[in-house]
Each structure stands twice: as structure tokens, then as C-alpha cells.
Amino acid sequence: MADGTKAVVDTSAADAAADEAALAAAIDELGGRRTAPAGSADAPAPDTPADPPAAADEDTPGDAPAEPGPEGPVSEETSEITAPLSVQEIAAELAAGSAGKKAGRKPAPEAAPDRRRPTDPQPTVDPRDTATLPRTLPAPMRHSGDKVGNRYRLEECISQTETFSSWRAVDEKLRRAVGVHLMASGHQRARKVLAAAKSAALLGDPRFVQVLDAVQENELVFVVREWLPHASDLAKLLADGPMEPHEAYQMVRQVADAVAAAHRRGQAHLRLTPRCVLRTDSGQYRINGIAVDAALRGLPPEDSTEDAQRTDTRAIGALLFAALTHRWPYPEDRYDLKGLPKGLQNAAPDQVRAGVHKGLSELAARALSDHPPHHAEPITTPEELVRAIAAMPRIRQPEPALPVFQAPPRHNTHALPTAPNPTRVADTTVAPLPPSSRPTAARRTKRRLRRVVKATAWTVALGAIGVASWQFVGSLRNNGQAAATPQTSVSSTAPSAHSTAHTPVPLTIKGAESYNPLGDGPEGTDSVKNAIDGDPNTAWTTGWYVDQLGPKPPALKSGTGLMIDLGSPQSVSSVNVLFQGGEQAAEVRVPTGAAAGSPMSARPEGFTVVGKNRSGTNVDYTLDSPVTTRYLLIWLTSLNKDPDGKYRGHVAEVKVSG
């Protein structure tokens, strides 16, 4: 505390009103000494930074462990989103300011030799709630295999700092991987972490990594988030060099849209770094740690909405700057990127690296700097950034390079004893063409391609003529035989072609399950039985999506499915799927031999398509030949857009025939 007395840890979660009354009494008794002047010996000067503890920059991506390391001081932790100054410059300015203040006041009484300064450099933001709690408290010690909340089994420690630890864990109830942050409940930041986690959980935007649980249990506070095992953070994506313009455009567009939507809901990230931005295997960008990362590291909340919007906008500008230049736009080397020299602090990306897209360079400079180059107007809010991106010409994905056409080797006509075609013999008396009039390699390639196309067309035409002639001769021969030997009339009791055809037999469906390997878990588990209950008025409904399914962004994933269990291997010849709410599209798949034993744990690539992708409200899939299988996968590739503007799948009934 500011008067030098030791703080008492109260881990019994006493009533808030009693805490407030006790605090008020303590303040009255101290006579206002809690807010002592800066020169008092009982309170450290606010301009003098506390000795930073050895902790770590604990950015925890959803896919790859970050190596544990020591945590730097606060100025270093937040330099990428607060000020373009190095740690040494900030420390020098603070020391100079402290010396100036001390020169104008009386010398302070000498402090007791055994008094220790607090090790947490973050100030107390809300003394009413946290004054009785210690400024720093070691992170709870846990080991692999330990269980928290009687549900989450810790598997691997991703990062360990002085105040909290981050783990990859397993939710034993839902049998899925999750991420867990652990902190002592007696720490000053514990209440703010819980509040930030609960507010982030209410956001409900799939573009953010979802907070699944936030609990205080005895001496422990833990926050549970979803785990994205196949995602890569932006720092890893930039390890090999800068992004292509199209990929950088997709990244900043998706991140700005998501952050602007969060600010409209009253949420701010406040610590948006390259390790918080994750790209999934489908190309969708998702943001991790909204509000929670800032609370875990003790960053104070912004004083106003404008400050929070400017902080997040500047952070997005820094992400785009790093993606375009492969440099961090501040003096410090961060996230395996080299910082900028002092003379380039306000430079645009195209001034740092040649060949940068002009529009994206201007966008990054306007979002990052309060005084952009060329007197451009700064962008101060995520909403303004979204509008600026929308006003840009869309950057299209580059076309894949065509394979190089290898020209066939030329025959040397001079080596032949006689030339059958005199026109092909080179005339040495004629002067060669000047370089400007010689056909280029591209022209020669086009000519060869034209010849190949013409030859192919002639071959196809001659083949078609031959087949038609053969069929015509065969029909004449059959007609001649029919005229010579008239056939007897066919009896009405003779079997017809239709009577010998296969008659579909309905098969009994034993069960159905939601198959969602590209998502976070099963979808619509409560309604999955409606797809096989024989009632077309009830339906299995998937989760909701902001964008339509598809293989390319902005689609979150390529599909989701419904696994049909026939109970035992059956011969399947056709499948009927009845959709509800409007046209939807799906395809029918069966597991391969490797996936037949456990199809629910197999990836979509472990299935074979037997019914091609078709759309409609009532779709029949007739297989080319019967397939013997126990499991059928109805793989949805296009969902219905509901009246609320979100995409959902509605499967009313599935029928299988053999």
C-alpha cells in the first residue's frame, strides 16, 4: 500500500459492501495519506519505473507453443500499441522527469532499509476493489495431468510468467482441446480478468476465438477458450518474409471488420499483436484474446471510447505495416521482426521496402500514424478503417503461373542427303531477319498450340464420322435380317426391361450424429434426431455462420455434415435428402477403408464422394452403382440464409434405399 503497510490477502471472497466500508474506514484513519504527494517516501514516484520482474511476453497462439521466457517491463510489453519509443528512451524520459520533480521539493525522509518496492510495475487502477490485494502474486503451480474445475485436464504449458500461466488442456466433458489461463485469485488483476473474460464471452462473434468459461475456484482463477489446432498466427506467417498484396488485403479487411463489430458492441481488444491474429486452414482470420489479454497483463483500460478505438486502429495499422514490409514499425525488435531506425518512424511502408502496394501502404500509414506522410488524413477508428478499405479497388488473387511449354527438338535439314520438300531447306543466301522482325517465343508457342488444337479437332471429327458410319451399317444389317426372318409377337407375360430393373428397398437408419471436423465441435446435437424421425416438419439445424460455406474466404470453412449410421454394412443405391427453409446444397460421401472403423474422427478427405454436389429443397442422389457401407455422410456445402441474415443448414429428413 502507499503508506508502506503490507497488504493482506483476502481469499475468502468477502462481501463487496463490507470490503468497501472497511476500505473507507481505513482511508479515514490514514487521513488521506494513501494519496501522498509524489515526493513522499511512502509512495514510489509515478515517473520512476519499478524494477521489472523477469517474466515473459506470453503471446499464446492457438496452434503452436510459445517458448517460455522472461516477461519484460510494461513499456516493452505495450510499446507496439502505445508509443513509438524504445525502452531505453522511455526509461530516460521517466528518470529525467523524476529528477526534475525532486529538484523542486524538500528531501524526503529516508525510507526503512527493509522496505521493498512492489515488483508489479502496473499501477492500481481501481483501489476500491483491489486495495486489499497484493500487487503481485506468483502464478499457481500446476503440472501436466492436473485437473481444474473437475473438468479441464492440463496437457502442456504454453507459457509461464510471474503472474499467470497458459496451458493447452482437454475438456473431458466434451472431449475437445481447449486453452486455459491460470491466475491466483488473490492477485490484483484477478477480478478484472474475470470481468473481461465474461464480457468477451458475451460477444458471440465467430471471428473471435471464443471464451468458453471463466471461473474463480478457491485460490485459483481460470479462463477457458477454444483451441484452434490447425491455425497459424501472423508472427509465424511472416517468418519467411512479407505477404503478397492479396493476402495482406484479406488479413487487414477481415481483422478490421471484426474489430469494428466488437467496438459497436462496446468491446475493445487493447493488445492486438501478430500473435493474436490466427489464420485457419480455410483462410479465415480469427482474433484471440479480446479484452482478456490486456487484463492478464495488467494494461489499464482506456479512459474513453475514442482512446480505445485509436489504440486498436493503430494496432491494425502496425499489423498491416509488418505484413507489407517484414519490419516492426517501432524501434524494438518484436515477434521475430526487426524494428525501424529512428529516422523512419513516420515513414510509409513503400518508403521502407520497394514494391509495396501503393494503396495498402497509404492505408497502413494513415492507421498507424497521427501525422501520415503527404499530409494524408489519419484514420482513428476501426469503423473509418473499414470504410477506407471498402473504398479501395479490390486486390484480386494472382493467377497461377502456366507451365512452361517445352518445344519439340528441331530436325537439322542440312544433315539430310536429300530434302523431300525443297521449301523447308534453309537458303543461306538470304540474309537473316532483323531481331525486331523475328517471331518471339510467345508467338511460336501460340502457333504450336493452334496446330495441336487443329490436329485434335480433326482427330475427334474423323473418329465421330467413323463411329457414325459403323452404327449406320449395323442398323442396315439389323433391318435386313428383320425383313428376312420376321419375329413372332412377344407375349404379354414376357418379362419387360422395367420388370428386370432394380426396385429400391427402404433401409432402416439406426442413428445420426453431427460431423463437424472443421469446426469447434458437434452442431445441433439436440435436434439431430429430427433428421431421421420420419416427420418432415421437424429438422436438424446447424450452428449459424456470418458467411456462406465455401473453399475460399470469407467462408469460415468448406462444409459441415450429418453422419448416418445404418447399424451394419448395407447395399445402398440411392439417398433422398429433404431440406427445410429453402434451397441448400450437399453431397453424399462414404468412408474409405482407412476411415470406415472410426468415421467420426476422420477428416473430410477420408471419404469418397458417391453422390455429386446438388442443390434444392428435395434432392435425390442415385448412385451409379450400389455401394456397401454402414455409414453415409451428408456433407453440406451451401446453407440457407435465415431471416436474421445468418446462414444455417436445416435437414428435415434423410431416406436411404438399397
Question: Which key features would you list for this structure?
Answer:
658 residues, alpha+beta, 8-stranded antiparallel sheet, 15 helices, 21 strands, 27% helix, globular, disordered N terminus
How many strands?
21
Strand content: 15-25%
Beginning-to-end CA distance, first to last residue? 78 Å
Secondary structure tally, helices: 15
Mean pLDDT: 74
Please bin the fraction of helical residues: 25-40%
Largest sheet: 8 strands, antiparallel
Q: Round the Cα radius of gyration to an integer and report it.
A: 35 Å
Structural class: alpha+beta
Stretches where pLDDT is under 50 for at least 5 consecutive residues are 1-132, 421-431, 481-500
- The gross shape turns out to be globular
What does this structure look like?
With 658 residues, the chain is an alpha+beta fold. Helix content is 27%, strand content 20%. The protein has 15 helices and 21 strands. Strands 12, 13, 14, 15, 16, 17, 18 and 21 form an eight-stranded antiparallel beta sheet that branches. Helix 8 (245-264) packs antiparallel against helix 10 (305-325), helix 8 (245-264) runs antiparallel to helix 13 (382-391) and helix 10 packs antiparallel against helix 12. The longest helix is centred in the C-terminal third of the chain and has 44 residues, at 441-484. The chain is globular. It starts with 15 loop residues before the first helix and ends with a strand.
